[in-house]
Every structure is written in structure tokens, then in C-alpha cells.
């Protein structure tokens, strides 16, 4: 018995020594920063590429010693996005990423030097198809699951709180958005072609829209964003347009037409607004991000098909933080790409005189 104890202690000491040496003495690889902007010189840049997120290392999030020790002994080390689909950046700097391949939500928290994964209610009840993610004022995490037909709510540490949606009320919940001021959750139901409206405690308030091609009607909508004006901006995907409605469901405007040229839409998915109200739309077929004003006038396009920085392979969700960092889920490139809107006080698509080009 004594001999086994001694052997175990010696083994532990060797493991600790190995870990300490490998993490302390390992080579540090400096990433070369690329300066990529849109539009390119000689025009004044409006969008710049910042960095890519795939693992906690990209935020310089360091593992604690005992976590490294456990992973070394148990052989467990599970991190990094596989097929990101939805992304959300909150006011505190946290970045949340839904992963349809890993059936989970990755939470990157560089401010608190923390990273964790939300997998579901418990080990037996996992997420199946997490699509979109958002947080409320208390940093509770809301995740739509298009297969289970629910929105799941977790606290800021990833502990399950409740589910929203009963029976078969929702057919395929996808994009979600939260109005923090009013405490309202908006859920896009792609298959039902409707918007479900809930209180944050899960009470169904009303349903907006119906299937069709008219104003205020939808055909397989996917994502939704809330503007500073309180209006809802929805990618009406199979109608190949963006619709703008107020919080009561009243139609305000629309733009977009089917095509493969600049300013056209092919398969619009993610949608977000920057601090000046410009509308950003990802397109999984055009594989770029297009920026429009609220009248539908094209302002700028950035990105193209490819694997390099600033290039996309099936871009899906998009989120813009309060400081105008733009997070794009680059699904088939297995990464989140981060950009920044460069404010000039003149907006996008305007010259030094402040007039449209």
C-alpha cells in the first residue's frame, strides 16, 4: 500500500514538472497582424479586419493550472469552434457562438479570462441544433434550438434556468433578439414564417406575420435584429429581401431583390446594425457582407469567397458590439472573423463633403 502511494506521488510530481516546463518554456508564436481594409486605398477605409476567433487562445484566455493538470491526466481537451452559425457580442465583451456541429454554445470571456461551453440542460438532455444566441440585461443566455423547437435559457455561468415554447407552438425557431429595455424576446420561426413574441419569463405575448410575399408577410425568415429606433429588421430569406417592422408588427419598409450582382441578394441570413444605423447582411451564396442604409441603398461590400482573412465560406450569423466591432460566423472556415466599422462622422458611402458619392 505504501509503495503504491509513493509511486502515485512520484507520478504526480513528474506530471506537474512536465506541465510547468511545457507551458513556461514552450515557444511563443507571434501572429503577424494583417492590415486589410474596405474600400481599398486610395479611398478612405470604412471597415478593417481585426482578428479571427477559433479557440480561447485567440483571446489570450489562459487555463488555470489544475484545469491543465486534469486535461493532461484525463486526456480531455475540448475547445474551439467547429461549425459556427450564430454569434452574439454583449456589452461586457463576452462573445457567444452557437456551433451546429458540436451541438453547443461557446462562451469566450476575455475580460474575466474565462471560456466555457454550454451543452444543454444536463448530460442527458443536450442541445441538438443551436442556431441563435442572445443575452438579457442580467447576462442570462438565450439559445434557440431549431430541432427541439425551444429557446433555452441559462444563467451567465451556463447553468440551465428554463425553456421557452410549449408543445408544437414553434416549428423551427432560428434567429432571436432581445429588447432589454422592455424585456421582450423575439423569435423567428423559419418554417412557420412568423415571429413569436415572448416575455423573458416565457409567457407568449403575440405572434407577428404570416406566410406570403406581401408587406408584413414572410417566406422562411431566418435572423432578426433590433435597431436603436426600436424597429425590427428581419432577413426574409426566401422572399430575398429585408423587412423592417415596428415592435407591434406594423410594416415600415423593405428592400432587396434576387440576383448575383453587387447590391443584389441571393440567400440573406445574418443581420445587424452598427451605431449609426447601417444595416449589415451576410449572404451564404454571395459569401460576402453587404452594408445598406435604411432605404436599401447599397453602401459597401466586404469579403469574398475564400479561406484567407476577410474571405468567407458560408457566412451566417453576424453581431455588432457597442464599440462597432463586427463579428461574423464564417461557418465552413470554422471561425469567427472580427472587423471594425471605422467612424468618420460622415457615415459610409459619403465623401469628405458629407455628400453621397
Question: What's the arrangement of secondary structure elements?
Answer:
Elements: H1 2-25, E1 37-38, E2 47-53, H2 65-74, E3 84-89, E4 95-99, E5 104-109, E6 114-118, E7 130-135, E8 141-145, E9 150-154, E10 160-164, E11 173-179, E12 184-189, E13 194-199, E14 204-208, E15 224-226, E16 232-236, E17 241-245, E18 251-255, E19 268-273, E20 279-283, E21 288-292, E22 298-302, E23 315-320, E24 325-330, E25 335-341
Antiparallel strand pairs: 1-2, 2-25, 3-4, 4-5, 5-6, 7-8, 8-9, 9-10, 11-12, 12-13, 13-14, 15-16, 16-17, 17-18, 19-20, 20-21, 21-22, 23-24, 24-25
Give a description of the structure.
With 357 residues, this protein is mainly beta. Helix content is 10%, strand content 38%. The strands form six sheets. Strands 1-2-25-24-23 form a five-stranded antiparallel sheet, with no helix packed on it. A four-stranded antiparallel sheet has the order 3-4-5-6, with no helix packed on it. A hairpin with a 4-residue loop joins strand 13 and strand 14 (204-208). It starts with a helix and ends in a 16-residue tail after the last strand.
Helical run tally: 2
- Principal-axis shape: globular
Order of helices and strands: HEEHEEEEEEEEEEEEEEEEEEEEEEE
Poorly predicted segments: 6-31, 65-77
How much beta, percentage-wise?
35-45%
The main pleated sheet reads as: 5 strands, antiparallel
Q: Summarize model confidence as the mean pLDDT.
A: 88
Strand order of the largest sheet: 1-2-25-24-23
Amino acid at each position: 500500500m505504501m509503495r503504491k502511494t509513493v509511486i502515485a506521488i512520484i507520478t504526480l510530481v513528474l506530471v506537474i514538472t512536465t506541465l510547468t516546463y511545457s507551458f513556461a518554456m514552450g515557444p511563443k508564436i507571434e501572429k503577424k497582424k494583417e492590415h486589410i481594409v474596405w474600400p481599398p486605398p486610395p479611398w478612405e477605409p470604412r471597415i478593417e479586419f481585426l482578428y479571427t476567433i477559433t479557440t480561447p487562445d485567440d483571446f489570450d484566455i489562459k487555463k488555470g493550472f489544475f484545469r491543465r493538470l486534469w486535461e493532461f491526466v484525463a486526456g480531455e481537451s475540448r475547445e474551439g469552434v467547429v461549425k459556427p452559425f450564430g454569434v452574439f457580442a454583449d456589452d461586457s465583451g463576452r462573445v457567444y457562438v452557437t456551433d451546429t456541429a458540436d451541438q453547443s454554445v461557446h462562451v469566450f470571456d476575455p475580460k474575466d479570462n474565462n471560456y466555457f461551453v454550454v451543452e444543454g440542460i444536463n448530460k442527458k438532455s443536450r442541445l441538438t441544433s443551436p442556431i441563435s444566441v442572445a443575452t438579457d440585461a442580467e447576462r442570462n443566455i438565450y439559445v434557440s434550438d431549431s430541432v427541439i423547437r425551444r429557446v433555452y435559457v441559462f444563467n451567465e455561468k451556463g447553468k440551465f434556468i428554463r425553456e421557452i415554447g410549449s408543445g408544437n407552438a414553434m416549428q423551427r425557431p432560428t434567429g432571436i433578439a432581445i429588447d432589454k429595455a422592455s424585456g421582450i424576446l423575439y423569435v423567428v420561426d423559419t418554417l412557420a414564417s412568423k415571429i413569436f413574441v415572448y416575455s423573458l419569463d416565457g409567457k407568449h405575448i403575440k405572434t407577428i406575420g404570416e406566410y406570403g410575399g406581401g408587406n408584413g408577410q414572410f417566406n422562411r425568415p431566418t435572423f432578426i435584429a433590433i435597431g436603436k429606433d426600436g424597429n425590427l429588421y428581419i432577413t426574409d430569406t426566401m422572399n430575398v429581401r429585408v423587412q423592417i417592422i415596428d415592435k407591434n408588427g406594423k410594416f415600415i419598409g423593405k428592400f432587396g431583390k434576387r440576383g448575383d450582382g453587387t447590391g443584389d441578394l441571393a440567400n440573406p441570413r445574418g443581420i445587424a446594425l452598427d451605431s449609426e444605423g447601417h444595416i449589415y447582411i451576410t449572404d451564404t451564396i454571395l459569401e460576402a457582407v453587404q452594408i445598406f442604409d435604411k432605404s436599401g441603398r447599397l453602401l459597401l461590400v466586404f469579403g469574398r469567397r475564400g479561406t484567407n482573412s476577410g474571405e468567407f465560406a458560408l457566412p451566417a450569423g453576424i453581431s455588432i458590439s457597442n464599440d462597432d466591432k463586427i463579428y461574423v460566423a464564417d461557418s465552413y472556415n470554422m471561425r469567427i472573423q472580427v472587423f471594425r466599422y471605422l467612424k468618420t462622422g460622415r457615415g459610409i458611402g459619403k465623401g469628405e463633403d458629407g455628400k453621397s458619392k
